[in-house]
Amino acid sequence: MSGGVDKIEDLRRRKSRSELGGGQKRVSAQHAKGKMTARERIHALLDPESFNEIDALVEHRCRDFEMDRNVIPGDGVVCGHGTIDGKLVYCFAQDFTVYGGSLGEMHGLKICKIIDMALKTGAPVIGLNDSGGARIQEGVASLGSYAEIFFRNVRASGVIPQISVIMGPCAGGAVYSPAITDFVVMVEGTSHMFITGPEVIKTVTNEEVGFEDLGGASTHAKKSGVTHFTAKDDKGALEIVKELIGLIPANNLQRATVVETNDSFDRLCENLETLVPDDPSLPYDMAIAIEEILDLGSFLEIQSDFAQNIIIGLGRLGGQSIGVVANQPIHLAGCLDIDASVKAARFVRFCDAFNIPILTFVDVPGFLPGANQEWGGIIRHGAKLLYAFAESTVPKLTVITRKAYGGAYDVMSSKHIRGDYNVAWPSAELAVMGAEGAVQIIHRRRIATSKNPDQERERLVEDYQEAFANPYKAASLGYLDDVIAPNETRIAMLKALGALLEKEEPRPEKKHGNIPL
Q: CA–CA distance from 264 to each of 274, 293, 397, 399 (Å)?
């Protein structure tokens, strides 16, 4: 009997050693930086008592550089599954108190096992990243485990949602796993992402740049667009993840959970009656339209600080999850540029992969002109958004609030690339270009030979506006399904969404398309 007791005590001792991580001194150092430990993060993320740990007793196999003298069970990453609001999720949290969270062979294979299990069960996978990078002592074995993770990220892409939370350093090859996942959340002040650090950059290019400017949360939120959300601390980052999980389905074969809403299905949006100014050159805030039409308080904006001329995000309409893409007239007049096109394209593809309907708000005067845009590849990048909308088969609702000019009209989920329900407000203008530019091209000679060119130009502009600066020509051709009063938009979208939920749109069989990357 005593032998059995001894074995139980040995088991408890081993598991306790794993739970201690790198020891109290390193835990205190983690707390001093304003960071939670790996286990604290997991318990803050998941429902109470729901976490089931896997591979707590895994140890590294490295015997070089005296690593055999420093073996800590768990190998620097806590893995397992639990629930968020009752929904199954798989997760891993790198433990910076153990070898600086560095990824060695077994550390990486633990993460691989979690992704494999998430794929088998059709559940989201959440990675809490806090790592010094590849474990140098393990050499190519460490790199091999990174590649194994990358391969699984790609295989899981479009099958299960993948969310990465950067809660400390994430450098070198480590950044590619988060980059492949669907959403990246960063913590202000404590998280950093970069391929090469400040010291290497200074050596190679002689540039001097600090950690925060190079790869901090603000940099990736505003300049690079790598991160989708930023939070002030660890707790805030985990709350964002919880909100995301509530808005998306568990996998590509399911739909997001429908929730009860107290927002009336027949609510009129009176604030929209005066939203669009009479002067077509004046801006307005498209976010007001989004907030008015969706279920009140349900909208979660994504990449809010990047490419602000377009808005993307998730919300609810009648309790159903829905993705939103919207031109934003208060930034660059709502023009599509390189960053906006790429931002929206990736989001549209996410929604399509996970059966989330898409609601598009259009007020776009065209693609942003300029040599830098052309040299930067606006043709190729703009085509990404066109491709994304055209290939998507989820229900697509489109509301044209004002300008829909040129190729940008086509790109923004128009009827021609298979928008399902396309409507416009009476303030909408569907044309190749604005009246001033069109008249200057069409009637150049007539204006030049007129006795009063300015008066003739003004008259011709008025004629053009009367003929084309409205939605009725497009409606007469069937390019719009209806012209509606702005205050009736919520009701119209709810009816259309209800009718389209069971939509099926088969496409030709193929291995995959060739999006213009």
A: 22, 11, 20, 20
Mean pLDDT of the chain: 93
Round to whole Å and give the CA distance between 36 and 53. 18
Band (pLDDT 50/70/90 cuts) for residue 359 is very high
Task: Please state, in angstroms and rounded to a whole number, the distance separating the CA atoms of residues 481 and 295.
Answer: 23
SS3 per-residue string spanning 244-283? HHHHCCCCCCCCCCCCCCCCCCCCCCHHHCCCCCCCCCCC
Please provide the distance, in angstroms rounded to a whole number, between the alpha carbons at the two ends of the chain. 66
Beta strand 358-364 with 421-424 is: unpaired
Q: Which residues of 360-383 are buried (b: 16+ CB within 10 A; e: fewer)?
A: bbbbbbbbbeeeebeeeebeebbb
d(CA 202, CA 194): 14
Whole-angstrom distance, CA of residue 160 vs CA of residue 339: 26
Domains defined along the chain, listed by start: 2-247 (3.90.226.10), 270-433+469-500 (3.90.226.10), 435-468 (no CATH)
pLDDT at 105: 84
Identify residue 68 by its one-letter amino acid code: D
Of the candidates 421, 80, 394, 397, the one whose C-alpha atom is nearest the C-alpha of residue 256 is 394
pLDDT digits (tens, 9 = 90+) for 328-340: 999 999 999 999 9
Residue type, 35: K
Q: Which of 77-91, 303-317, 323-337, 438-452 has the lowest mean pLDDT?
A: 438-452
Please tell me whether residue 354 adopts helix, strand or coil conformation: coil
Active site residues: 172-173, 407-408
Rounded to whole angstroms, how far apart are CA atoms 185 and 195? 17
Q: Residue 242: pLDDT above 80?
A: yes
| C-alpha dist (Å) from residue 248 to 127, 228, 251 | 17, 15, 8
Strands 125-129 and 162-166: parallel
CB-CB contact of 323 with 349 (8 Å): no
Q: What is the DSSP letter of 190?
A: T
Three-state secondary structure string covering 135-173 = CHHHCHHHHHHHHHHHHHHHHHCCCCCEEEEECCEEEHH
